[in-house]
């Protein structure tokens, strides 16, 4: 060892962000979350994630310039447009498909941590003044997304892509 500090890799909360004309979530035949224009966020929480990951991704998503301005350029954010966010927990974003044919989920956060950080992420988005709808954590959900563009982005709190 050369005396350099050992750096432990922290988690990387993952999100699939889709610009949407509208979106909704149904659980057991009942619509539990619904938005008009805005973004649908499919959020995956990893076992090494913490509050800083939730804060970072919430701010990043709210400020992403993925909406057109008057010239048709992607120059406006969710905050600029006053759009809404539909946030759906999706632990399968941590599915590891590199070996075999069945995904492994050992890097996904345990339910207690996942739920806590999911709620923290939702709270962070709300604190920015945005309208937020959600799915139900750990429920079987039917998610409808009417992608606008289509515009779909992959984000993670460690900025690996």
From TrEMBL:
Compartments reported by the entry: Cytoplasm
Keywords of the record: Cytoplasm, Hydrolase, RNA-binding, tRNA-binding
Chain positions of motif Gly-cisPro motif, important for rejection of L-amino acids: 149-150
InterPro entries on file: Daa-tRNA_deacyls_DTD, DTD-like_sf
EC number(s) from the headed UniProt entry: 3.1.1.96, 3.1.1.-
Free-text note on domains in this protein's UniProt record: A Gly-cisPro motif from one monomer fits into the active site of the other monomer to allow specific chiral rejection of L-amino acids.
Name listed for the protein in its UniProt record: D-aminoacyl-tRNA deacylase
Gene3D superfamilies: D-tyrosyl-tRNA(Tyr) deacylase
Any one GO molecular function term: Ser(Gly)-tRNA(Ala) hydrolase activity
UniProt keyword tRNA-binding present: yes
Taxonomic superkingdom: Bacteria
GO biological process per UniProt: D-amino acid catabolic process
Coiled-coil stretches noted in the UniProt entry, renumbered to this chain: none
Task of the protein: An aminoacyl-tRNA editing enzyme that deacylates mischarged D-aminoacyl-tRNAs. Also deacylates mischarged glycyl-tRNA(Ala), protecting cells against glycine mischarging by AlaRS. Acts via tRNA-based rather than protein-based catalysis; rejects L-amino acids rather than detecting D-amino acids in the active site. By recycling D-aminoacyl-tRNA to D-amino acids and free tRNA molecules, this enzyme counteracts the toxicity associated with the formation of D-aminoacyl-tRNA entities in vivo and helps enforce protein L-homochirality.
Pfam annotation, one family: Tyr_Deacylase
Main EC class the enzyme belongs to: hydrolase
GO CC term, one of those recorded: cytoplasm
Family per record: Belongs to the DTD family.
Subunit composition and interactions: Homodimer.
Reaction catalysis annotation: a D-aminoacyl-tRNA + H2O = a tRNA + a D-alpha-amino acid + H(+); glycyl-tRNA(Ala) + H2O = tRNA(Ala) + glycine + H(+)
Organism: Desulfocucumis palustris
Keyword 4Fe-4S among UniProt keywords: no
PANTHER family linked: D-AMINOACYL-TRNA DEACYLASE 1 (PTHR10472:SF5), D-TYROSYL-TRNA TYR DEACYLASE (PTHR10472)
